[in-house]
Amino acid sequence: xxxxxxxxxxxxxxxxxxxxxxxxxxxxxxxxxxxxxxxxxxxxxxxxxxxxxxxxxxxxxxxxxxxxxxxxxxxxxxxxxxxxxxxxxxxxxxxxxxxxxxxxxxxxxxxxxxxxxxxxxxxxxxxxxxxxxxxxxxxxxxxxxxxxxxxxxxxxxxxxxxxxxxxxxxxxxxxxxxxxxxxxxxxxxxxxxxxxxxxxxxxxxxxxxxxxxxxxxxxxxxxxxxxxxxxxxxxxxxxxxxxxxxxxxxxxxxxxxxxxxxxxxxxxxxxxxxxxxxxxxxxxxxxxxxxxxxxxxxxxxxxxxxxxxxxxxxxxxxxxxxxxxxxxxxxxxxxxxxxxxxxxxxxxxxxxxxxxxxxxxxxxxxxxxxxxxxxxxxxxxxxxxxxxxxxxxxxxxxxxxxxxxxxxxxxxxxxxxxxxxxxxxxxxxx
Length: 430
Ligand SMILES: [Zn+2]
Fold this sequence. Notes:
By secondary structure, this protein is α/β, with parallel strands linked by helices. It has helices at about 70-80, 100-115, 135-140, 155-170, 180-185, 195-200, 205-220, 235-245, 280-295, 310, 330-340, 345-360, and strands at about 5, 10-15, 20, 25, 30-35, 40-45, 50, 55-60, 85-90, 115-120, 145-150, 175, 190, 200-205, 225-230, 250-255, 300, 380-390, 410-420, 420-425, 430.
């Protein structure tokens, strides 16, 4: 055989229910053996964890239109460095990904870059204006499985209902940015005592919950699939938990910053903490963690949102919302949820939320495991105990707006493989 065997790694495969030290042999694009003898070249992975490549349901790659912030090339390089083998970029580019041409452009740029698989999300409405539906059929014909106006809520219940009904034709998924704009207006941070104290307009938790409730009702009525992005409030977690108990076809994601950072950070007026939905209270953070632990929240998604320094590093009120996430998501999850006392997620559950669950919730075949003979070798190798300090300048993203700069984390990506090929190897982009 001409391939290689990763030896000595702890193979943690949530999809296959495996957690044991085993050799994994790869030939060409596929896994050919798990737990066998060394075949081909030996690649030492002693002390490392081998898992299905991570899958991110929510990123902003900014191309076309904002190549000063990120490009498909730089964003997918950041993904590979973060252990991701598949990412789903949102449609709020310029031009908007509301027709087949942009889907084709982003897909082509991703293939040329070759760092990871990219599954573009199509817009729900033309120009994200919330009025007429986008060319959903043409995009679905290109393989688009999820539609979202992320960044902008679909305000009209009528438009949302039609979108859900239409998406059901292809069993596609609608993901609505959950914000009732009538309640947020010029909001700058989470609404509470602190927003009054700081004199910043508040983004009340009800604005998220009203929209989630509406969407759950509409999705249920249409028998359609709904995905709730960046869940940030305790009330939203409860709504999704109840809907799941009643058999709704709903999935949900949470971003690392929403299960680690709290609104008190806004008191620094450092715009790196400005994000939509905003950082919430300790109680909300705890509820999001519980939602991940009990499976109410299926996936950890980064909402990777690059902004160049000249935009992001402005006075709080003028700075745009958003944070980087791709290169810190795994380590933040390991540090804050797996190593936490008390532990929030087992390692297998954490990797399920970063890989298996997102792949399945969006019908992304070949990713998220299982790691078994015949499966595409989409894998991540990481050192679960290595400590490192986040250096914003060392990231592969074109932007630097990480809220974890200077933070010491535990768990570091060593290598990433896409269909048997290293996209990131021994800490260097391949
Ligand atoms: Zn959003």
